[in-house]
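Weekly modeling sync, notes
Attendees: S.R. (lead), two postdocs, one rotation student

Agenda item 3: backlog of single-chain predictions. S.R. asked that every request posted to the team notebook include the full sequence so nobody has to chase files. The rotation student volunteered to paste the first one in as an example of the format we agreed on. Action items at the bottom.

Example entry:
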Amino acid sequence: MSVLIVTGTGTGVGKTVVVAALAVLGIAAGRRVAVLKPAQTGVTMDELGDLGEIRRLVGETGALTTRELARYPDPLAPATAAARADLPQVHPGEIASVVAELAAEHDLVLVEGAGGLLVRFDDEGATLADVAWALNAIVLIVAEAGLGTLNHTALTAEVLLRRGVECAGVVIGSWPSEPDLASLCNLVDLPEAAGGPLLGALPEGSGLLDPADFLEVARAAMSPWLGGTFDPDVFAEQFTA
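Predicted structure, as returned to the notebook:
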């Protein structure tokens, strides 16, 4: 795997922290990692943005490259935010070209979407699903833990299946410190909804950690396929003992 596209089931599900976890684990394994954010919305040019948050969590390292193609101030879908700001839109061809450029110089390229899978980048209706299909890239779904997440996850997975895009599995972006019944049941039900394995569960508040602590949390919270030690069965057992 050299390119992994990370999509959320919606906004605020912990997608950026998951991307940071993937990046820090890749770097810890000796890989050269690049993170591409095709479109950042809801952030001014003077604010940190998702890539700045990822760099903070990963820490100072020459093994991480970050690229942002467009930034729009309104917290809206990229196509709408671009139109309101009278700024150029980002198109799938441009995104694919930059991914290819980054992949030539890095061992792992992580592409973080904006919101969910079908959020529009341009007036033609292009989405992250189109980018994944064009690149023949694997997609990782980041989902919430609790009530309502199964429907959102299943819808995302169904779109990927219908478009012939491989789904790696699902990661819970923020696992609550006191999980409710729905969250506990979703440890079993989420993989079925995603059509792929549960590949991790990052504890809530992970995005507030310093780089050293974040690396250790990421390692424990992510699957060996993603560079960690997470075992979904062992994780679930601690709540049923």
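Discussion: group reviewed the output briefly. Strands lie at 3-8, 33-41, 64-72, 108-116, 138-143, 167-175, 198-203.
Action items: rotation student to repeat for the remaining queue; S.R. to check formatting next week.
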